[in-house]
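Morning!

This is the sequence you dropped in the shared folder:
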Amino acid sequence: MATTTTSSDGGTADGRAPAAAAPTADEITAADVATTAGLVAYREEIGLGGIRSTFAAGRTALGALIRRDLVVLRKDIVIFCLRTVIQPFLLVFVFLYVFPIIGQGIGSSGHGPHAQAAESAFATVLVPGVVAISIMFQGIQAVALQMAQEFGYTREIEDRVQAPCPVWLVAVAKVLSAATQGLISAILVFPIASVVHAKGVDAHLSFHWPIVLTLIPLACLAMSSLGLLLGTKFEPRNIGLMFGFIVLPLTFLGGTYYQWTRLAPVHIGGFHWLQTLVLVNPLVYVTEGMRAGLTNASHMHLYIIYPVLCAFFVLFLTLGLRNFRKRVLS
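The structure's back. Tokens below.
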């Protein structure tokens, strides 16, 4: 067995220095304390204050990401407004202005008091539906289309995830930013949808403020989370398929042009198949909630609308965050 002898000057016989002893736990703790104290002193010296907690740093990064999106929105506010109002304006212009004038109003034919009453009833149904689809379109466009660009040719997502916060917080910032844009779109669209009517056609609106002030933010969050899920599920080159196979069916089967309660006559035997099928569509609950908040028309029960919208929000956000993390780390 080989042995190592120590020379009189403290080294080994072959001239190597003796191995340094491993630091003790107390020495490591003292070094960490000294390093932290030095860092705190340096930050205070240059005016940055003390060391922030992980929660505080994440909150600051989240606020910065949202502010960045809002600054970009402010610079493109004209494009945002045009993109937001053009489709709802065309819907109410054609259905509530052109059709009644030419005697082809929805629910009626010709002119006269009976036709105007039927057209006004349809306007009462359509106005909340138009507000609902504006929230849905804005939530999907603000997240899914933007993510298609950032995961595609711009690769901007690589810069965003370098922010001093967890990866999932970057996705949450996108959802909150898109929800804010959805709220703005609802504010922009409602006045247009409520006034662009032919003479004699009036939407009978009645505001129920507790419903309006709670349901619209919830709807914006749910639709923005849906946009996150779709944006992380579809590849950038397939984003057109998303609108053809997902968004379009959601729109036409989402109760925009009719009340869910009026679908009962569509049945096979005793099974109301269409009224049951559309229950998987989150837009149905948004449109029915809008009718509950903006009109006195018949609508789905609120004790169904609120829990289901909350469930959709949690489901879409959970799946979207999981897919977002996979896309970023792959």
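Headline: The chain has one domain: 54-329.

More detail when I'm at my desk.
O.
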